[in-house]
Amino acid sequence: MTDNPRKIIIESITRMLSRREHAYHELLRKLSHKGFAIEDCVVVVEEFKQAGIQSDTRFAEMKLRAGIAKGQGPARFKAECQQFSIAEQCLEAAISETDADWFELAKQVRIKRFGSDVPQDAKEKFKQIRFLQYRGFYSDHIQYAFSDDEY
Predict the structure, then answer these.
(1) CATH top-level class of 5-54
(2) Mind listing the pLDDT tens digit for each residue in 25-69?
(3) In its keyword annotation, does this UniProt entry include Cytoplasm (predicted)?
(4) pTM above threshold 0.90
């Protein structure tokens, strides 16, 4: 690789990472879309990874915080991160390190969308269940969201 494309790749990666965290494969995809040879990019992105500048773990933590703020559950977080080829252990580590109460979050999301009354109609209850499933909550979180426990 000549020095000039390497310098441009380094500048591009630095610009991208200065805005927000990026996953390893996301950086490679963006650089290849810019017209850089993938083999040239892999070398530079790997250097950034080894130096700790790029981290899939930090990317997963960022995605998790953003998802919690949007009212999304752990299943949705995992599905979105798998699109970026994040390792399963990074996902599990991010979930275990968070202090999110998935049960309460599911309940808050349901109440914000549909109100505090538990639906008596089966059709309405299934509608709310599908909504919470779409948001990425597991069945035990969804069951809790319909409980009468003090909010």
Answers:
(1) mainly alpha
(2) 999 999 999 999 999 999 999 999 999 999 999 999 999 999 999
(3) yes
(4) no
